């Protein structure tokens, strides 16, 4: 197929703005395109060489290098090109004008001695790919030479669009939706084929691939299209509601309720030992998570599978889940192996879309979940998301509080009926998110009293490393629990802590302590520690201010960290529940003022 055809259509497309006309021109172009290069035609129209999820480099050729290549290609001095560019402001247009005017034409070309065969789409595509992929020593020359070669052969219009493509300025303004309309007209017999094409695109987010299938095998082949390992599925998205009663009724009265983890969404593809991880935006993020790739290799029992989950940062010592921001360290670190060591992650899986040749997207959620559970071998890195099945609003509320008190962002309430398919690429009420609006950022630290302690896990196994902390209410002379603190201690502080706590260990709870948690050891309220967290949030597990904001839950600190001991304070001088309530209300008010969001009732 000649590249000229594309250039001519680009030229026509540039002159019109009506969507109907654009679709009709595109339909013509597709009809005239060769089936074996239709994928490349689509990518070029999209202004790229391949789908983003390949993770291949973009073409990345600066203006200086393009001018150099053009100068060699058309045999015109760089100065002349630069001067023209100043006037015209578009290097594509400059190339067009110079070629058209015959500048740089030698006597040999004039006589036709060096005339060559017309440029093909394949040739242009291959040269552009070579330019994009060249790296390392000598790559600059390779890029210039390849482009110069193309421009030499190109006619004026072709040169214009080759340069504009590289420059990222095609300006033909064609989105995926229009491409799908045109594909439906060209290969599917008309607009009625559009939903079939869209469904296929949702399953394989690669329009080049979809075009190739429909062009060479027909629309029927698309109807039966399955997801393919290596090509991401467009993600299913959730609606948001705040009223648990409404949420449950929307999903049909019964639901699978998952913790909503606060991490990075990951769509994981596996074919034997080949593993790809795609982000929410379908970028290839496999390189950032070599550990996750290994876990999938070791613990997922399937030849071919596509699963989905949330990658969550984990506290190295306690194993508790950490806020999303912690994952950012991974992206910033150059040394990925060091980052893996320093910022470990767990994966909480929540769906399965494809398994050993079978498309699972059209199966109801319980069936997908069952298969997911079956293929995970016992391990402590990859888990199915924490969940319950319920038809009871009270249980749902309780579970919401439990989720946030354990560091989750809220819950995902999911339909479980016959129609509870995986709606690729769509946002709907089959999944509804209930997030903690009940939150209040914590600007100030608080001073809390140690009333109990828990033994750690992993490296901290056998050591008391998590402290049950309480606020003190002088009115009732009672200690009300607020949070468990497990991070922020240095190794030396941790060692010292063992001695400190064993000295004040009690056989049972101090009568002044009000707690719903049962720590491994109780201690006499003696030490005060300064603690800061991400925010103050509701939690059913803690007794501080229970009943004052919500019937079921008290106030707690999310992601608390130890700052230092406050030996200068007696336990009676610790922060009071009243103060924590004030902090909570103050921030909450500010948040409402600015966002206008309502709270779940
Ligand atoms: P959206 O993804 O809906 O456009 P968003 O990007 O703002 O919105 P959220 O509102 O936080 O994200 O909610 C959706 C995200 O929650 C999902 O994309 C996914 O990454 C995450 N998530 C965490 N846990 C789950 C779960 N158990 N099931 C589904 N999604 C979950």
Task: Describe, in plain words, how this protein is organized in 3D.
The protein is α+β, with helices and mostly antiparallel strands and 601 residues long. The protein folds into three domains: 120 residues, DNA ligase, ATP-dependent, N-terminal domain (DNA ligase i, domain 1, Orthogonal Bundle); 193 residues, D-amino Acid Aminotransferase, Chain A, domain 1 (2-Layer Sandwich); 150 residues, OB fold (Dihydrolipoamide Acetyltransferase, E2P), CATH 2.40.50. The chain is built from 22 helices and 22 strands. The strands form four sheets. Strands 13, 14, 15, 16, 17, 18, 19 and 22 form an eight-stranded mixed beta sheet that branches. Strands 3, 4, 5, 6, 7 and 8 form a six-stranded mixed beta sheet that branches. The chain has a five-stranded mixed beta sheet with strand order 1-11-10-2-9, with helices on one face. The termini are far apart. The C terminus is likely disordered.
What characteristics describe this protein?
601 residues; alpha+beta; DNA ligase i, domain 1; D-amino Acid Aminotransferase, Chain A, domain 1; OB fold (Dihydrolipoamide Acetyltransferase, E2P); 3 domains; eight-stranded mixed beta sheet; six-stranded mixed beta sheet; 22 helices; 22 strands; 39% helix; binds adenosine-5'-triphosphate; DNA repair; DNA damage; DNA recombination
């Amino acid at each position: 197929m000649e590249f000229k055809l594309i250039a001519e259509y680009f030229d026509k497309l540039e002159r019109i703005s009506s969507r109907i006309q654009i679709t009709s021109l595109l339909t013509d172009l597709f009809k005239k395109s060769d089936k074996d290069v239709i994928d490349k035609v689509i990518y070029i129209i999209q202004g790229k060489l391949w789908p983003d999820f390949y993770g291949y480099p973009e073409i990345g050729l600066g203006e200086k290098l393009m001018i150099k290549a053009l100068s060699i290609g058309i045999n015109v001095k760089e100065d002349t090109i630069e001067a023209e560019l100043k006037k015209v402001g578009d290097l594509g247009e400059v190339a067009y004008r110079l070629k058209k005017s015959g500048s740089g034409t030698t006597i040999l070309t004039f006589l036709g001695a060096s005339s060559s065969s017309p440029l093909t789409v394949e040739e242009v595509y291959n040269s552009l790919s070579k330019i994009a992929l060249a790296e390392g020593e000598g790559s600059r020359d390779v890029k210039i030479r390849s482009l110069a070669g193309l421009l030499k052969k190109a006619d004026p219009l072709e040169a214009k669009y080759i340069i504009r493509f590289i420059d990222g300025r095609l300006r033909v303004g064609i989105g995926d939706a229009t491409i799908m309309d045109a594909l439906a007209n060209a290969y599917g017999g008309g607009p009625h084929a559009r939903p079939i094409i869209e469904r296929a695109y949702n399953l394989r987010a690669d329009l080049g691939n979809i075009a190739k299938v429909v062009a060479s095998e027909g629309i029927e082949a698309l109807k039966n299209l399955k997801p393919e390992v290596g090509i991401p599925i467009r993600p299913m998205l959730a609606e948001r509601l705040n009223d648990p009663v409404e949420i449950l009724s929307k999903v049909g009265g019964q639901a699978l309720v998952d913790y909503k983890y606060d991490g990075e969404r990951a769509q994981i593809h596996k074919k034997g030992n080949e593993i790809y991880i795609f982000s929410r935006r379908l970028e290839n993020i496999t390189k950032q998570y070599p550990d996750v790739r290994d876990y999938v290799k070791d613990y997922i029992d399937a030849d071919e599978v596509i699963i989905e989950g949330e990658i969550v940062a984990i506290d190295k010592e306690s194993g508790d889940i950490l806020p999303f921001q912690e994952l950012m360290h991974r992206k910033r670190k150059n040394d990925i192996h060091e980052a893996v060591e320093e910022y470990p992650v767990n994966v909480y899986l929540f769906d399965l879309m494809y398994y050993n040749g079978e498309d699972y997207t059209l199966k109801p959620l319980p069936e997908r979940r069952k298969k997911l559970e079956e293929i995970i071998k016992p391990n402590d890195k990859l888990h199915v998301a924490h969940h319950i099945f319920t038809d009871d609003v009270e249980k749902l509320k309780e579970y919401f509080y439990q989720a946030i008190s354990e560091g989750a962002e809220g819950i995902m309430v999911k339909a479980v009926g016959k129609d509870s398919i995986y709606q690729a690429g769509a946002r709907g009420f089959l999944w509804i998110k209930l997030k903690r609006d009940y939150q209040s950022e914590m600007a100030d630290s608080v001073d809390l009293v140690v009333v109990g302690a828990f033994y750690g896990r992993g490296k901290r196994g056998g050591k008391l490393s998590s402290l049950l902390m309480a606020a003190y209410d002088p009115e009732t002379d009672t200690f009300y629990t607020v949070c468990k603190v497990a991070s922020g201690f240095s190794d030396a502080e941790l060692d010292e802590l063992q001695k400190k706590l064993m000295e004040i260990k009690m056989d049972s709870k101090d009568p002044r302590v009000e707690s719903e948690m049962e720590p491994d050891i109780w201690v006499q309220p003696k030490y005060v520690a300064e603690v800061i967290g991400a925010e103050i949030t509701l939690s059913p597990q803690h007794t501080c201010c229970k009943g004052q904001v919500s019937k079921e839950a008290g106030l707690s600190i999310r992601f608390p960290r130890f700052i230092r001991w406050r030996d200068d304070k007696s336990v009676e001088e610790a922060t009071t529940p009243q103060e924590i309530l004030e902090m909570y209300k103050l921030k909450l008010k500010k948040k409402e003022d600015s966002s206008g969001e309502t709270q779940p009732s």
